[in-house]
Every structure is written in C-alpha cells, then in structure tokens.
Amino acid sequence: MTALLLPAIVGGLLTGGVYALVALGLTLIYGVLHIVNFAHGALLMAAMFGAWLLAAKLGLDPLLALPLLTAAMFAVGWALYRFVIGPVSRGQDRAILLATLGVAVVIDNGALMLFTGDSRTIETPYALAMLQAGPLLLPEAKLIAFVCALLLAALLWAFMALTDTGRAIRAVAREPEGAMLVGIRPQRMFALAYGIGTACLGAAACLLLPSFYVSPQVGESFVLIAFTIVVLGGMGSFPGALVGGLLVGVTENLGGLYLGESLGPICVPLLFIAVLLLRPTGLFGAAR
Amino acid sequence: MADAVLRVRDLHAGYGDFRVLQGVSMEVAAGEVVALLGANGVGKTTLNRALSGLLRPSQGAITFCGRPIAGIDHAAIVRAGLVHVPEGRRIFPNLSVRDNLLLGCYVRGGATRAQSLARVLESFPRLAARLRQAAGSLSGGEQQMLAIGRGLMARPVLLILDEPSLGLSPKLVEEMFALILRLRAEGLSILLVEQNVVQSLAVAARAYVMEHGRIVMQGAADVLAGDARLRAAYLGL
Ligand SMILES: Nc1ncnc2c1ncn2[C@@H]1O[C@H](COP(=O)(O)OP(=O)(O)OP(=O)(O)O)[C@@H](O)[C@H]1O
Ligand SMILES: [Mg+2]
Fold this sequence. Notes:
The complex is a heterodimer.
Chain A: H1 2-33, H2 40-58, H3 62-89, H4 93-115, E1 130-133, E2 136-139, H5 140-162, H6 164-174, H7 176-181, H8 186-208, H9 218-233, H10 238-263, H11 267-278
Helix pairs in contact in A: 1-5, 1-8, 1-9, 1-10, 2-3, 2-4, 2-8, 2-9, 3-4, 3-8, 5-6, 5-8, 6-8, 9-10, 9-11
Chain B: E1 4-15, E2 18-29, E3 33-37, H1 44-51, E4 59-64, E5 67-68, H2 74-80, E6 82-85, H3 97-104, H4 113-123, H5 125-128, H6 140-153, E7 158-162, H7 170-185, E8 189-193, H8 197-203, E9 206-211, E10 214-220, H9 221-225, H10 228-234
Parallel strand pairs in B: 3-8, 3-9, 6-7, 7-8
Antiparallel strand pairs in B: 1-2, 1-4, 4-5, 9-10
The structure holds adenosine-5'-triphosphate and magnesium ion (MG).
Magnesium ion binds at residues 44-45, 87, 162 of chain B.
C-alpha cells in the first residue's frame, strides 16, 4: 500500500492545482461581489465545450487554445456582468445571486440543446503519456495542467497585488464609497472581477479537457469541489483557494486509495466538516 | 468673488423623496479655508457628497475652477482637483497603508506618483513607519491621517474635510488643526466641516452656518466668532 501512497499524493496535488484555479475564480467573485456565483459550473462547462470545439473541429490543441479561450471567457464574463447581471440586479446582492442562477439555467439548457447529453472527449498526444520522475510515473497531461495552473495563479496574484487595477478591485470589495472618492468606478471593477473570475474557467477548461470528459453536466461536479475548496480555504481568500485546492485533490485520491471507489468520495466532505468544526472561517479566513 | 475655486448656487439635493439641501449657495476662493458649521443632521455631509459627485443634485449649479460640475461623473470631479475626505474616513481596511495612498492618485496615473508619495509621507511620518501594515489595523488617529494623506495624493486644488477631528484625542485634534494650517500655508483651498467651532473659526477666513439644508449665516470667521447668535447656538455662551 505504501508503494501506492506517494503516487496517490502526487497525483492528488496535480489534480488539485486545476481545482484551485476553478476555485480561485469563484473566490475572487465572492470576495469582490459578495455573492456565490451560481453560473460558475455552467460557465466552466461552456468553456470546456469551447475548448472541445476548437480541438475537435479545428484541430487546435487545448494548450494552444488556452490564451485564446481565457481571453474569450474574460470577455464573456465581463459582458455578462456589464449587460445582464449588473443591470438586472441594480446592486442588490440577492438579485445578483438570482441573476447568476438565471444565467446558469440558460447556459445549461443551451448546452443540452446544442450538444445533447452525450459525453465527448478529445485525443492529445500527451493525454496518456507518462513521465518518469525517480520512482514516480507522472501523467504528462496532469503535470502540464498543474504547472500552468500554478503559473496562472501566480500571475493573477501579481495582478491583484501590484497593479492599480488590481488594487482598485480589492478596494471596491470592501469600501465602494471610499473607492468612488478616489475616482474608481465600482461597477467597472465589479465587471472586471466577474470577467477575471470567468477567465480562470477558460484556462481551467483547457487544462482539464485532455483528462476529462465533457458533457452538459460536467460543470456541476467541479463547481461542488470548487465551492468546498472556497469554504474550506476561507471565503474570498486567495491562499485559501490554492492550499484548499491541493488539499482536496490529495484527500480525494487518498480516499479512493484506502476506501475504494464507492466509499472514497466521502473523504472530501468529511475533511470539509472537520475543518469547519475546528476553524469556522476556513483555513485562511479572517478570524471573527 | 472673481477668483472663486468653488461656487455653489441654489443647490438642492436629497435622498429619494427626502429633501435635505434646499437652496444652498456658497463660495470658496483660491487658497482660502472656509468653515462649514451646523448642528447634526442639517445637511453638511449631504452638501459634500453633492459637491464630489457621490450624490446627484436635483437642482442648482456647482462651478469648480470655472467649469460646471453639478451631476457629472465623480471620477471626472476628482481628476479636476476636487477631493473629498469623507466623514468616517472610508479608507480601504484590507489594503496596506501604501496601497491606500497609491490609490489616492488612481486618476492621475503613475507619472507623479512617487513624488506625491514622498511628499505625503513627509507630512505623515507615522504612516511612513507603517506602510506595509493593513490600514484596518491602524489606530483611529492614524486612519484619519491616512484618509487625508490619500486625499492629498490626488494633488487637490480644493480639499473637502468632513469632520476630520471626530473621535480624535485632544492632542490629535491639535495636530489636525496644525496640519490644516500647514496645508493652508501651501496654498490649498479647504472646505472644512467641523463640530469644533472655536478651532475651525480660528483657522478659517470665512464661515457658513447651515440649518435645515440652508445657509443661515455667513461672514468673516473672526466676526462670526464674536457673533452673539452663533455663540448662543453652538457654544452655549
Ligand atoms: N443615505 C441617506 N439616506 C437617507 N437619508 C439620509 C442619508 N444620509 C443622510 N440622510 C439624512 O439627511 C439629513 C442630513 O444628513 P447629513 O449627513 O448631511 O447631515 P450632517 O450635517 O452631515 O450631520 P452630522 O453633523 O451628524 O454629520 C439627515 O436627516 C440624515 O438623516
Ligand atoms: Mg456629516
């Protein structure tokens, strides 16, 4: 069993990196707009279909499509907030929540109509390739996904910490009126934050596609994991989403290893409950 | 007043159907400190919010540096040089002191930023020692300094200070008025809203007294300081 332990942990970390990217988008939107983005799963699914279309119809490798799809999903998220969610909600948190739910329903059913309920997949030269690292055999697709996810997370962190726009987004998150007094337009920042959170999904979709099937239901499983990560790490916390993502990835794999296919999946909810019992605000949440 | 930086004519504003300002007219000249006095709830903050574009006036005109600004975008007003340091500070608690200050010149961009930062930190050495600290962890007095420092980063022509001495210890109130004198010496125009009537009249050239959304008294600060009606209403003398 111990011979399997190390590969299980490493494999969990690799998957967890991409989970973290999905969770980063969710936690950013939560941290700035103070709402749980109900459209997150649907948007991830849409992005995965986007990546699938580019690969299956145009032969574009998901990794090459990544910059394109990330930018496209940013535009989609930005426009959704600017033209749908923002105007519909008029700044009321409850209404924003319902607006994102409405967007999710539309996207989910649109996908069912266009693609039916079937699962689809693509083949990449690296999907099944393995890399030998000492005693470990690493799946190449997941390794690439992990490295890309961490790079993008670092890039996002740098943007939020070091640029004026990043500072302005963090400023409106807590003090929109104060932000207006220095000349920031809060609605623009909200749209940007929603766009960036959605862009994370564009990147994640390209990283997930080589290893996962796409179907109109695919978003649900990921968004449940992402929500667990966000709460586990601390709502709105960047490091929380990152560490939470890796932790959930590893827990999932170890659960599968020790408890088997059917019982294994209870480990993540158990971890979730245990952390919340010990630290109700999550691992990196501000202590109340 | 030919060289008025700010000129307000018959300004009306309120919240929904609730009318607060009912025809305010006032002026601030270049380099002048003007005190705006009045009891709680008469509409001083509402006037400030209308001037800085946070609240759209329902009627009346505001001219800033010769340009009509009533109802225009708040960002354009900041860029024009009218900067409002609000009641309650409204700093960004989750950002570092440095990031708070840098956002002060959000509309100016990076060109003069380092220079502005150096100047502001010279005025507020206590902030300089806490640049990396989260602003929310500062003491009340330091947060007020930060709010003013953030306002100065925008290189204002007119600075609106809404109750800057509220909640400060007597020693810090002294420091606050010393700072206002320094800013005045640098030629900044200041509209000062204060409950500290005696001290505000000491630093101001002129003053307005507000009641129920209207200006009910105005004049030179030293004259108002000796006015029997004002002394009875606000100083209990
Ligand atoms: N956002 C708001 N919505 C509704 N009414 C408001 C709002 N803000 C202020 N008011 C009301 O407008 C009136 C004027 O308030 P304002 O804050 O301008 O007074 P003020 O002179 O600044 O008082 P203070 O000295 O207490 O700061 C008050 O009756 C207040 O209750
Ligand atoms: Mg007030």
